[in-house]
Structures are given as C-alpha cells and as structure tokens.
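note to self — DONT lose this again. spent like an hour looking for the file last time. sequence + predicted structure for the chain T wanted, 321 res
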Amino acid sequence: MLSRIAEDVRLARIEPPQEDPIAIVLDTDTKNEIDDQFALAYALTSPRIHCAAVYAAPFKTQQFPSAAEGMAASYDEAVRVTELLRPKHRPPILKGSDYFIAERGQASPSPAVEDLINRCASERLVRVVAIGALTNIASALSLEPSIADKLVVVWLGGHPDYWPHNREFNVRGDLKAAQIVLDSGVPLVRVPCKAVAELLMSTPSEIEQYVAPCGEIGAYLSRIFAEHIPGRLRSKAIWDLAPLAWLVNPAWVATKVAPTPRLLDDFTWDHSDTSRPVNRVAVDVRRDPILADFVACLERHVAGEAGAESPTAAARDAKGA
C-alpha cells in the first residue's frame, strides 16, 4: 500500500524539523560494531534531541549468527550504554524483530513493532531514526500500512544514487525490509554510507584525547573504538552520527530531493520511474563540527551543566563551525 500523503505534505515532512527539541525514536543494531553506541550517546545527550524510545534492531555476524542473537545483543548493549550515561530522561528500550523478512507482506512482530504502531495511532507524527536494518519499521508497515501517513524515517543505509551497488551492511541485513520501506511511500530522509557517512572518520588518538575524559561513557566509547580497529595507523568511520547530525544542524549534512529509487533484488538502484514519491538524500557531511558537537554534548552531560555560561572548548568549536 502506497502512502496517500500529498506531495506538498511529504516535502514538508522531509524538511529539517523546526521543533526544539526534536522528538525521535532510535532504531539501532547497537552491538553490531561501535558506531551505534556513539549515536545512542549523542541522542541521549544532545539538547536538540528528545529520544522517546529505543528499539533494538536485528543483525547477523560471525559473533552473532542469527537475527535473534543480534537483536538480543543490541538490546543488552543499548541498556549498557544508557546505564553508563545515566541520562535525566531514560527512554524505554524495547526488543525488536528476532527474524528477518523473507518476502514482501511478511512481518516480524515484536514489542518494538507494536510500540511503533501504537505511537503512530496516538501521535500526530513519529520520526524514526534508523541506523540498522529496517526490519522493525518494515514489519510495522506490513502489519499496519496506514502508519506510513504518520511516519518520517531518517535512515542510514545504502550507497549514493550513482553507486553501482548497495551491498552495505544495513541493506544486506534485510533486503526485503529495505524494499518494503522504500516502496511504501513513507516520507524518507536517506543518508548513504559510501562517500557520505563514511566521511565521519576519527582515530583512536583523537577519541582518546577528547572522548575518553568524558566520564564512564567516554572511557567506554574510547575503549571499544580502539579495540575495534587494532594496529598503528588506522581510522574508523562513526557512520551513525550522520542522521542525527542532520537533525541537530542540517547545515552539517548537505542534502538533495529526488524521486525515491527502487531497490532491486541484485542490490542496485533503479531510477527509471521518476513518478515515485520524492525522498531527501544526503550528499555530503561536515566531519569537524559534527564531532565537535558530539564531544561538547558529552562534556556538558558529564559536567551536569547543559547550557552552562562557560562552554567548553568543544562546545565553542561546535557553535562557531
């Protein structure tokens, strides 16, 4: 079922939101690697964001060989990061789908899927920031297609429109789920990985200098970052900060509006149907102000002085960027 949203309404919904703070639900495969932990910490410390709920997304790796094991690990890791942060507002953390979608029309029910459907029934608009496979969101759409009229999805997934394939982790994790969401007509803001989110690079020495001093959460993030990329000269993309950064300050994430492409079974884009609903797609990110704002949020949180009169150096850098 294609969403019946009028095109002017769709365009308005994929504009950068004006409310402050911006209410979101974060859908995250938190234990997949280490960037989701950074994103969750950002969502829980940025004064621009109100994280109303966290959904654990499924994933599969050698360490977690089934969707159910990946989702359970995501749930446990989301709880761990939240406990280390001890935020003033603790959002509910809900378990998501424990199997991937094998065919269109199928759903993988879960507490997270039920919560999303209920939120769409009771709220004017629900904005989901998805930084993993789209299983939870696709399942909700399959069970209750009408929620497409109440949803905005901001998704880190796929590659740029010109890239020859989309064989990146979030698409490969659940291809059918991605196809369901892209074909649903739900208002969509898409942040590609290659040549866009991957520009958010950092190094262990940089993270150790600026993030590690930020209390228990900073020490934890610094440790898992360094452990993830052993060696001497190395760097790592903190991909999942990008969709949140677009919400915090859209000047940091350049975007364009174009018809939503069709995702084919061979993981390529099909742009032939220009009548499809438009989506907003990121084309660039500004690494320095994004990372500066992330550090500033951690510093303020740990110091317990959000909006302090004497901002930290990182906070001044983020404001002036």
